[in-house]
Amino acid sequence: xxxxxxxxxxxxxxxxxxxxxxxxxxxxxxxxxxxxxxxxxxxxxxxxxxxxxxxxxxxxxxxxxxxxxxxxxxxxxxxxxxxxxxxxxxxxxxxxxxxxxxxxxxxxxxxxxxxxxxxxxxxxxxxxxxxxxxxxxxxxxxxxxxxxxxxxxxxxxxxxxxxxxxxxxxxxxxxxxxxxxxxxxxxxxxxxxxxxxxxxxxxxxxxxxxxxxxxxxxxxxxxxxxxxxxxxxxxxxxxxxxxxxxxxxxxxxxxxxxxxxxxxxxxxxxxxxxxxxxxxxxxxxxxxxxxxxxxxxxxxxxxxxxxxxxxxxxxxxxxxxxxxxxxxxxxxxxxxxxxxxxxxxxxxxxxxxxxxxxxxxxxxxxxxxxxxxxxxxxxxxxxxxxxxxxxxxxxxxxxxxxxxxxxxxxxxxxxxxxxxxxxxxxxxx
Length: 429
Ligand code: ACO
What we know:
By secondary structure, the protein is mainly α. The chain has helices at residues 33-37, 75-81, 84-93, 99-111, 119-124, 132-146, 156-182, 195-204, 215-228, 235-244, 250-262, 269-282, 287-295, 316-332, 337-351, 353-357, 365-374, 382-403; strands spanning 4-9, 12-20, 26-28, 58-61, 67-70, 73-74.
């Protein structure tokens, strides 16, 4: 017999089905709630208890084990064995690609990796000091004007073409956002390179010298992009889905997702972590002082890179990144005192009752900035690198939402304002 939830309001009972996901997660299906109860709604700010959709893309479990799987494959195995483009294909199309599917995907992306020259004029209009996340969001939105045909979501071919288009053009915009900031001439990269190697070349090639890809840097970036590639219904992904639910196009939805990612409570945390660690270093490296600040409810300071809405144990991505940070810094011969401060903070936090009781553990962003910095990526670009990694996840989620023909996202509210009152002429106010 299927399970049911019973809700009693003023002595009247209502039954709602319980649906069970493939990992045995249960959810009370309240689709019929308002209709059955004559307009009663639920309230859940921050959606801490509310599922917005059924999704077959990413599974995460924040419990003891700290599980993250894309399409059933563990993040540990993917980070170890796959490359970013394979993971992108997996997320978007549901299965790991065969060699010929992967070759075609890459070839089609390369064929679409040119951005209209006029986009450079838009980029020119930004001050050099503009935050690259704002630049990236604007340029992603601007791409709509240069690719105005709307995608017929019922056509597999149309969907595929839109996907390879954005997978090709997005890294160009990322690289240009960096080059604008560093005053370097814009670069289009090199079709003979792999996807990630080409991104590095587009970002770092100097106009007067050859760019040779460092395999250590390339491998580390590939891994970081995989770790960031999807994370089910987080703030930016939910934004992408909800914007797309109004049937706004893919590029418009992605541009909105970039803005959502920018905030320091979400993707912007990687920049905030590094700035925090720098600040602690400059202040004499006293981690205890900052631990006390983080625990003081009268102090707005939070330990950036700690805590997660879903993981109430170690973020599995943080475990992988911590090891990668050690490896990359050793391989590149970088001795960054910030890494020691980060490890010190982590050790103290993991032993501190405030953090232990609230189940606050390092998240994906705690160590990623240290690796980005060792690669020579400026701190303001860290969240842009996150966006680059998250692109396939956003695409996959947008595609799923459209293919599932989800209704427009339109939450309810409980109104707490004034009751009806008569207008007062200005002379009477
Ligand atoms: N430092 C100090 N205290 C914290 C922190 C932190 N980083 N995070 C949570 N807390 C405390 C809160 O003050 C609250 O304490 P209380 O119960 O005494 O009031 C308790 O822990 C629960 O915190 P909430 O903010 O209610 O948890 P929520 O799930 O809403 O927030 C979030 C999760 C936003 C990630 C939060 O932990 C945070 O601000 N972390 C720092 C920013 C960060 O690293 N963001 C990146 C997240 S990962 C990502 O987006 C890729």
